[in-house]
Amino acid sequence: MSVEIKEVTSKKELKQFVKFSHKLYKGNPYYVPGLIEEEMMTLDKVKNPAFEVCDAIYFLAYKNGEIAGRIAGIINRSSNEVWKEKKARFGFVDFIDDNEVVDALFGAVEKWAHEQGMEDVQGPLGFTDMDHEGMLIEGFDQLGTMATIYNYPYYPKHMERLGYIKDQDWCEYKIFIPESVPEKHLRIGEIVMKRFGLKIMKFKNAKEIMPYAKNVFHTLNAAYAPLYGFAPLTEKQIDYYVNMYIPMLRFEMVTLIVKEADNSVAGFGISLPSLSRAMQKADGHLFPFGWIPLLKALKSKPKVIDLYLTGVMPEYQNKGVNALLFNDLIPVYQRLGVVYAETNPELETNNAVQAQWEYFKREHHKTRRAFTKKIVL
User: Fold this and answer.
1) Element (H, E) at 61
2) What is the pLDDT of residues 224-253, one digit of tens each?
3) Which of 27, 156, 280, 351 lies 20 to 30 Å (CA to CA) from residue 200?
4) DSSP structural state of residue 52
5) Which residue in 136, 123, 129 sits closest to 162, CA to CA?
6) What is the pTM of this model?
């Protein structure tokens, strides 16, 4: 029976779109399911402020009457303007190991992108850098994280078969927590604080951090500006992410570096206890009982933590501000008994972020890739 491609047009179909990955990976020990309602909100063209600057279409593939794959086509107009490109993205992609299904899914997105005047398709990417990005090409036997995509080994084989080629790779590391802060980091930290008039800020609750929250995202916009595919977050997007992430913070694991002169954010490091096992137990649902393992994980003494977001203003990059962040956070991790940190994806071309791990024992355990293809119809 031939494959049927259907555009998602109803809330019921959108929920089927979201739940397909949960079905495809059911029982897989490395897959970390997201929260269904959160992904529904991300894909909602009314609720997600990314649609101020993005267009999107969602497709489901059916084979023998059963859903066999899903894919989103996305155009980030802001990113195209910044990079002076005509590129569409594919994302939120999952499929069974079937040539017909894969060909039909990507054929639908490529046709849609061509109709919108685009010249290339790249991905997997989301609406913004805050969404999951990069297809796993190494590390299929490693537990995923809340911030990353897991996929079966057959995925990248299909990408190559379809003529997609490497666009960019991300590396992921386990960074093992040292017994003491590296001596060089301590020296650099002291020098940097005095030279640039910086101080470390810590917080006990959401009320204390809120005056700095939007500034953190403005720093992120500046820090990430030169990175692959990035487009600055709008004020509405910043408000959206502040409201989403502030309630999740473990404040002792949050460090801000601010200028003493005006309290503006020069750099930030935000980490969380690993929620991977808790997300597996929740199985996509906060209610009625999914919130229990998540709350336990957030309040636990974790063996593993996720380095969720780090950023430094361009004028302070490569000048030792990262050392200040780790000088503050390493003792926190030691006190909690953390064994290692998951870096989450780091661009292989970002030499500055790679160099910061020079003084730590580390293990490169996962690699993921963004693919690209010229549209030829």
Assistant:
1) strand 54-63
2) 999 998 999 999 999 999 999 999 999 999
3) 351
4) G
5) 123
6) 0.95
